[in-house]
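Table 4 source record.
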Amino acid sequence: MKLLVVVALAACGRSEPPASQPAPVATPDAALAVAPVDATLAPAIIPATTRELVVAIVDSWDATAATLRRYRRGGTTWQLVGEPWPGVVGQTGTAWGAGLHGPGKPAGREGPVKREGDGKSPAGVFALRGSYGYAKSAPAGTKLAYTSVSEPWKCVDDPASTHYDTILDRRTVKQDWKSAEDMRRSDELYTWTIDVAHNPKHLPGGGSCIFLHVWRGTKSATVGCTAMAEAKLAALLADLDREAAYVLLPRSEYDALATAWALPPL
């Protein structure tokens, strides 16, 4: 099965200040809701091989609280799996990122565009590139490629570096960067991380090191990533399909694009 997540993100490894608003409280939905999928509407947005979808919704471009939902595709329908759960995004909100939906702002849509250091989480539809963590092995059942990281592991966020937006072991390359995120932090935030394929062409200044990772709590925010409770992230990682996709959007943009992008109605 494959998964797609909807969320807004930005570069994440620095301090994560409190958000101006609390994350929404997940309210019980039906255990399973079904929405039709028209694969002819947007074949380039959600690949036909994507069988799972995780959707993160924020109230506005400036919001820091997100509500996440998970969907699984069966035949021609998206099925809601379980109940929504809370998460948090960038301290300054969200902005159009570069992903499966294309580079930046889609035609006819408004809103900010993601840039390095803006504190915003990228909005759009994104593939997932792999996972990382402190443990020697990933949670049982994990299908995404997993790397256990130690102190030398970094994610380069210096736009001038030839390794910009790349996760690497600094012992294996010649360092040409002035700044990089620590993949093995002194806190719990990167206990588990999932690498979101924002800025897949690694364009300098377009935004780097975008992850799903562990939060500090409901009133926290990130500097560009999407964060959630550790137990929820571990469970998600254990069940994500290798070709899962991730989506983050403000509610108004989701409603406007749901039909064209063949997204399930919320």
